[in-house]
Amino acid sequence: MTMSPNGFHAPHSDVSGEVIESSTTEFLAQAQQLDGAPPFGAFVQVATDDGLTILGVVAHVQTGGIDPGARAIMRGHDDIRDDLIYQENPDLPLVLRTTYRALVVGFTEGGSIYQFLPPRPARLHYSVTPCSAAAVKTFTDTGLDYLGALLAGTEIPIDELLAANIRQTAALRGEPQAFLQAAGKELAQLLHTDYGRLTAILRRCVGPLEVRV
Amino acid sequence: MPLDLLNVSTQVRQMGELLAERRSDQSRRVELLNAMLAAYTDRWQELADLAEQVKERVAVPTGPLDERLPAPDPLKTYTALATDGAEIDPDRHGGSGDFFLINVGRVRIPYGQPHREVELRSVSSLGFTEDDLFIVDPRDPRRQVPMRDRHLDALRTVEELRALADLAESEPGDAPSIALVDGTLLFSVLEERPRDFLRTRFYSDYVAQLERLRVAHVPVAAYASRSRGVDLVNLFRAVCGGTPLACDVCAGAHACALRGLTDAHILGRELRQWARTGVFRVRSNVHDPFFGVHRAYFFLLQTGEEIARVEVPEWVARDFTMLSNVHAVLVDQLAKGFGYPAVLARADDRAVISLSDRTVLDTLVRQELARRGVLARPSAKLHRKQVRTV
User: Fold this and answer.
1) What's the rounded Cα separation, in Å, for the pair B168 and B163?
2) Which of B44, B186, B268, B289 could, after both became Cys, cross-link B307 (CB 3.0–4.6 A)?
3) Taking residues B248-257, what's their average pLDDT?
4) Measured between beta carbons, which residues in chain A are less than 8 angstroms from residue B343?
5) B4 in reach of chain A (CB within 8 A)
6) pLDDT of residue A2
7) Cβ atoms of residues B168 and B218 within 8 Å
8) Residue A53 pairs with which residues in a beta bridge?
């Protein structure tokens, strides 16, 4: 598959997972490789056959037994630790899996980008790919309304998610300060009634020496 | 609530009392047997000769009774193969037509061979033709036995071993491979009359698979967790004649001291973790005529938690390297699987048919029947269970 100018089509080799649960607001994907989920806070996308590409932000990553009834137990003994445990039990990667939950933050359709919920959810069993730097830039250039969508998320550490997403997006875009300022302004509007929470998020968006709040 | 719990709880208490009593009685009887065991420890040849003359199924010693072998050096590189099966019996009440399903979990785990792939699969097959659903006597085609219950169990056992032989034949042979099944090699086939065709049907097919494993040079073993085998106990019963009044050991007690004891009680004492007993041949009038060079031998293995029984065919029992590899691999597998061979546990995971799998299969069958205009009506009995009326 060729790269489109806005970067929203990725080659198959970049596939990071497959959709195994899907709804309007989020989707759950199983990672291709054990422990191979995209980073927490990263942009991912699911393209469907009808020209709709759904964008999400990785909000939770989990690794455990494939069988819901099977729990992992401690396997280390003597000098067998860490990767040696996997070498000693080569069947483990086939009975464990990594899944990640992504919150839907927008979609592209007919060449346009929208920062609100798509008309249809991502299709089950379709590929999830990480968004390229170009795609992230295009998406965030259109606005930062998606931060509001993330803020509405439940049952996940929202403040950590916002900070992780802003940090990664700033680094990917290649102009970190400008983006951090824009995101800071957007968050200041969204959280104008909660100054304490706002500063806590902003502190997490930058390295410890660069705090300018 | 259909269970009368008040009544049952009284019975549970009575059962507990009886079990505790039986347990203390058991250790007393094992003490009684000590002298008898000591007398026969080195006279195993006499016991073996006697075993050949007994009618019942008994264990034939192949060495001193107190033989103990510690775990051999572990194999760094080996391939563990295992299969396990589950089945769905034909449902007489469901109305979706007669069919059965056999699901075999087949597993290959190459250890210490990072270039080889692990295989965890299930192979499901549906039996629905007349040939599948009835076992026909080749000498008298009017005699037909439906393939269900114990016969379907036997068929599943054969299919497990067939899948194991398939796995064994595709082994490249550069590392030792060991094939495991759960349970026993000496599975039973119920027959209504002597020289019946049912045993011929199942045992011949089973032995053909054992032969494929022998040709592939892959030792096969059947693993029975917490063995309750009594083949050696049966031999001692034959020795003493089973008449407590005349017996030196029982000394006029009201019942035989061997009653309720298993081979593990007799052989398993003082067996250290990972050690095994010597090898015993099982002399069985039912199996031996069919099994030939695949006659079953067994040893007991102390896993730390319990005593397991491991059965192997004669060509494994008589091959020192193969037998030693089976022992070494089982020790490693038991450590990896926390008391039950890891590869068998994986095969079991793949074999299990869940309630939701059953529902999906049932729906698939109903849809197919409906598409062809065949109405799947449950029997009146099942209908009554599904729709409760008062």
Assistant:
1) 9
2) B268
3) 68
4) 91
5) no
6) 41
7) yes
8) A47, A108
Is B82 in contact with B111 (CB distance < 8 Å)? no
Residues of chain A numbered 137-196 and touching chain B (CB < 8 Å): none
**A66: contact with B, CB 8 A cutoff:** no
Length of chain B: 390
For chain B positions 322-341, those within 8 Å of chain A (CB to CB) are: 335-336, 338
CB contact under 8 A, A90 and B111: yes
- Chain A residue with CA closest to B109: the answer is A91
Among the residues of chain A, which ranges form H helices? 83-88, 92-95, 133-141, 146-151, 158-173, 176-190, 195-205
Give percent above pLDDT 90 in chain B.
63
> When comparing pLDDT for A3 and A174, which is higher?
A174
Question: How much is the pLDDT for B117?
Answer: 95
Label residues A167-190 b or e (16+ Cβ within 10 Å = b).
Answer: bbbbebbeebeebbebbbebbeeb
Residues 6+ apart with CB under 8 A from A130: A10, A14, A16, A38, A42, A43, A44, A45
Q: Which residues of B touch A96 (CB under 8 A)?
A: none
Output the six-digit token pair for A118: 């798509």
Q: How far is CA A205 from CA A101, B1, B119, in A?
A: 22, 60, 45
Exposure string for A26-61, b = 16+ CB within 10 A, e = fewer = bbbbbbeeeeebbebbbbbbbbbeeebbbbbbbbbb
Q: Which residues of B touch A94 (CB under 8 A)?
A: 118, 120
What percentage of chain A exceeds 90 in pLDDT? 80
Compare CB distances from A90 to B110, B338, B349 and report the shortest one's residue: B110
Tell me the backbone φ, ψ of residue B179, rounded to 5 degrees.
-110, 130
CB contacts of A93 in chain B (<8 Å) are: 118
* CB contact B111 to A (< 8 Å): yes
Q: Is A69 on the interface with B (CB under 8 A)?
A: no
Nearest-neighbour CA in chain B from A91: distance (Å): 6
Q: How many Å is the maximal CA-CA distance in chain B? A: 74
Task: Report pLDDT for A35.
Answer: 95
A81 vs B376, residue with greater confidence:
A81
**Arithmetic mean of pLDDT, B272-297:** 95
Please check whether residue A191 is in contact with residue A152, taking contact to mean a CB–CB distance below 8 angstroms: no
Which chain B residues touch A97 with a CB distance below 8 Å?
none
CB A114 within 8 A of CB A122: no
